[in-house]
Structures are given as structure tokens and as C-alpha cells.
Amino acid sequence: MEGSGLTSPVYGRNPLFTNRGNKPLTRAGVTYILKKYAAQAQTMGVKDISDEITPHWLRHSKAMHLLQSGVNLVYIRDLLGHSDISTTEIYARADEKMKRKALMEAYNRPASDELPTWKKDKDLLDWLKSL
Predict the structure, then answer these.
(1) Of residues 98, 28, 37, 85, the one with CA closest to residue 56
(2) For residues 27 and 55, what is the distance between their CA atoms, to the nearest angstrom?
(3) What does residue 39 show for φ and ψ, rounded to 5 degrees?
């Protein structure tokens, strides 16, 4: 049934998030709320909350978490609403954990610690040394 539930035209006219005046919540409004609760958390002794918290900081953090989880950059671009992948690449700065993981995955350890058969062939090794 078209037009029912959240697809109803009435929802297109009303903002999803509103301020106390029932107006659309702005970026400045979200920043105000974030800073208010960050200050409250700091007062309660939480040390890991930055004074510089903003909606953009949250977007950047979520993009990095997705990237660290292995989500393709194209999907992150779509989620963030970027029209060009180069904008999303700003978020794609690999941290130390990601670099280490990439290096470890790229390193192929030999299947066996056993020497190859030619390394056990004394005649062949002597001949190679004579070259």
C-alpha cells in the first residue's frame, strides 16, 4: 500500500529531528547538544571525550571505524553522501593497526618448515657452488 507508514507524504514535510521549538535540528543544534553532553561527561570524570566534538568529528570517526572493519570505500562514500570517491578518500588514512594487518596478510609463510628437496641434494649444491 503506497503512502502508508514512513513512505507517507506527511513524513516528507516534517523533519526527522527537531529542536524544542519544533523546527528542523541544524548542524549548530547538534553541535550544541554534543558539547553539552561532552561537558557533562567530563564533569563526571570521563577523560576520553574531546572538547572539540562536532557532527563532522562523528562522521569522520564512523567512516574510520567502517574502513578499519574492512568496509569498501565505495560503500562508505555512499553512506556519507559524497558524490565523488576522492572526497571520501580523505577519511582513508590508514592507522598503524590497519597497516600492520595489511602487511601480515600480504606475508605468505611457506606451507612447511621443511627444506626443499634440492637443498638436500649435496651433489647439486656442490655443483652450484662451483659455478
Answers:
(1) 28
(2) 7
(3) -65, -40
CA distance 63 to 79: 9
Check: CB of residue 9 under 8 Å from CB of residue 3.
yes
Strand partners for 24? 18
Give the C-alpha distances (Å, rounded to integers) separating 24 from 12, 31, 55, 79, 131.
12, 14, 15, 21, 82
Is the pTM value of this prediction over 0.70?
A: no
User: What's the pLDDT tens digit per position in 3-51?
Assistant: 566 677 777 777 888 999 989 999 999 999 999 999 999 999 988 887 7
Let me know: does 27 contact 20? Beta carbons within 8 Å.
no
Calpha distance 58→53 (Å, rounded): 8
What are the backbone angles phi and psi of residue 107, rounded to the nearest 5°?
-80, 115
Q: SS3 for 65-114, per residue?
A: HHHHCCCCHHHHHHHHCCCCHHHHHHHCCCCHHHHHHHHHHHCCCCCCCC
Which amino acid does the sequence have at 33? I
